[in-house]
Amino acid sequence: DGGITQSPKYLFRKEGQNVTLSCEQNLNHDAMYWYRQDPGQGLRLIYYSQIVNDFQKGDIAEGYSVSREKKESFPLTVTSAQKNPTAFYLCASSMGGQGWYNEQFFGPGTRLTVL
Amino acid sequence: KNEVEQSPQNLTAQEGEFITINCSYSVGISALHWLQQHPGGGIVSLFMLSSGKKKHGRLIATINIQEKHSSLHITASHPRDSAVYICAVRSNFGNEKLTFGTGTRLTIIP
After folding, report:
1. Residue A5: which H helix or E strand, with range?
2. Cα(B65)–Cα(A91) distance, rounded to whole angstroms?
3. Closest to B48 (Cβ–Cβ): which among A48, A103, A109?
4. Contact A68, A25 (CB under 8 A)
5. A39 CB within 8 Å of a chain B CB
6. CA separation for the pair A59, A68 (Å, rounded)
7. In which band, very low, low, confident or very high, does the pLDDT at A98 lie, cut at 50, 70 and 90?
8. Tens digit of pLDDT for each residue in A54-92?
9. What is the mean predicted confidence (pLDDT) over B68-80?
10. Residue A10 and residue A31: Cα distance in Å, rounded?
11. Which residues of A touch B104 (CB under 8 A)?
């Protein structure tokens, strides 16, 4: 079955530690995205990638880093510089070079709690 | 003022009722998306529309570009429709990223 997987579902980390969230898709989509969701707020864009080996900052990129070495993978690292990392993180993908014009498919999300 | 406003924030209804969720936006857009988020957190895309009306099963989405307004309707609502419904718009200028509303939490009581 085609889809997007994110792992793990729940993640706990101590303050000051970097943590990497996994996102894999087998939909052969060119574009991938990372969003953050906080209670009472809409999804906010962290980073996006329209093509392999290229990515751009979204609205709230500070304290995060990404890589796009393979088409199917777009891992997100939450660094110790992110001041409020506890949140629900969603990965998405879409087909085509101009990803914004296409429907986005979302993964199940990872809930990160920093203790 | 947020670029995308949804109303109501919370909605509880009896099974079988006709449901309407509203989305208003303040920027020029090239498309509007309706998404469904289940309690587990996963999000499913329901509709992407730029004009008129779309229908899928018991779900109907309409958009009025001049009034900058869209509605999502659910006919013959069922408890399995209980979820958060999110409106997102794609701006027609700049980098054209999606801007999301805060969602409407719908609860259908049997």
Report:
1. strand A4-7
2. 29
3. A103
4. no
5. no
6. 19
7. low
8. 999 999 999 999 999 999 999 999 998 888 999 999 999
9. 97
10. 25
11. none
